[in-house]
Design a protein that fits this description.
It contains 4 helices and 3 strands, in the order ααββαβα. By secondary structure, it is mainly α. A hairpin with a 7-residue loop joins strand 1 and strand 2. Helix 2 runs parallel beside helix 4 and helix 3 crosses helix 4.
Length: about 130
């Protein structure tokens, strides 16, 4: 399982937040924020990472899947990215069938829009070092 579940002590506050009608406004704000961050990530990938990976927009979620160009091992790329301060998990580790698709998961929800380009440049440096 991927979730540790929130503590019971915050459940009443969350219920009150929802009952008061604040959830729909929060969702609207987050969708707009995440859409802007996704656009920034797509632009940063086009600017810095096009020789190594391809990324397409997605209408849902908080991550994009970046396909690696042939000949790159996503586990090696992921480790190199980590050494450059970028967390980009290897897509192949999520596969149960063979052959696994080579790629990276690029999250954008937890990083400020102004920082996305810097992170992409660090990932570019990691790829250039390989």
């Amino acid at each position: 399982l991927a979730d540790t579940h929130p503590p019971m002590s915050i459940q009443p506050a969350l219920a009150e937040f929802i009952d008061a009608g604040h959830l729909s406004g929060h969702i609207r704000r987050m969708r707009a924020l995440y859409a802007a961050r996704q656009r920034a990530l797509l632009e940063a990938c086009r600017t810095h990472l096009a020789p190594w990976l391809s990324v397409a927009p997605d209408d849902a979620g908080m991550h994009l899947v970046a396909g690696l160009r042939a000949g790159l091992d996503d586990r090696i790329v992921s480790a190199a990215a980590r050494r450059h301060g970028v967390e980009a998990p290897a897509l192949s580790t999520y596969y149960t069938s063979l052959p696994p698709r080579q790629g990276l998961l690029l999250g954008y929800a937890g990083i400020a829009e102004r920082e996305i380009g810097h992170a992409a440049a660090r990932l570019r440096d990691a790829l250039a070092d390989l």
